[in-house]
Design a protein that fits this description.
Layout: E1 9-12, H1 26-32, H2 42-48, H3 65-77, E2 83-87, H4 95-107, E3 111-115, H5 119-125, E4 128-133, E5 136-141, H6 144-158, H7 166-175, H8 180-236, H9 245-282
Length: 283
Amino acid sequence: RTKGHTLVAQYFAQDEATRLDPTLTVYDTLGAGSPVDMLPAIRNILGGFLFSGDDVEKPVAVLSGGERTRLAVARMLLHPSNTLMLDEPTNHLDIDSTNVLLDALRDFGGTLIFVSHDRYFVEQLATSVIEVGGGEAVRYPGTYPEFLQSKQERSAAAAPPEPATPAKATKKAKQAQADPEARKAAGRADREARRKQGQADKRRSREQQKRQRRVDDLERRIGEREQEIKEIESTMSAPGFYDDRETAQPVIDRHQNLMWEVGDLMSQWEELQQMDGGRESGG
C-alpha cells in the first residue's frame, strides 16, 4: 500500500477483543487511551454501545466475547482518524450489537475498508466491492447486491450461444420443399439438428445434476461449519475465556479458520447459483 500524506488510520484486528486489558473496567478501558477532550463523553459513548449503569464498572475479564468486541470498537472510534481498516468486526456479535456497530460506522465521516463474511453487515454498509481472485483485485462501484447482479449479467453475457434448434432447421427445410433433393437434404439436416439438440439437452441435464450435487454438498458443509462456529463462539463468550491466552489461542485460531472456510464455501455456492441463473436468463 502507498500511504497518502494526510492519512490517519486505525486498524481493528480480528482478535482485537483479546487485546483488551482484563484488569481494567469498561470505563477505564476507554478512559485510559482517550483524548482529554473526550473524557466527559465516555459514558454517553458507552451507552451507545449498550454499556449502561453499573455495566461501565464491570472488569473486562468478565465480559462476553460480544461485549469485548463492542468495547474494542468504541475504544477505536475514540481516536481521531480518517480511515478505518476492519478485519471481521462482527465476530461474536449478535444482531443487536451488529446494528449498534453499523450505526456507529455509518456516522463515521471517513473511509472504511473492511473484510467480512457477514452478508448482512456487508449488504448494509458496503458502497464499493473489491473482488480478489485469479491474480487480480477488481473494484466494483455500488452495493453488494449490485455487485452480485453485475456478476450474474456478465456470466450470462459470456455464456456460449445456444445451438441451432430443430424448429430453425425445420423452417429451412420447408423453404426447400419444391426441390426433392433439397427436401432430402433438409430432412437430413433436421434429423442432425434434432440429434445434436438431444445430445446438448442430455449434457445440460447431466451438468445441472452435477451442479446440484455440488450445491447440496456445499450446503451440507456450510451447515456443519456454521454449527461448529456457533459452538466455538459459545465457548469464547464464557467469562474468563481470554484469561489463559495459551489455552484460548487454539480455539481463536480454529474459529478464524472456520470463518474463512465458510466464506470460501459461500463463494463457491454463489458461483454455482449464478451459473444456473445466467443460463435461465439466457435461455
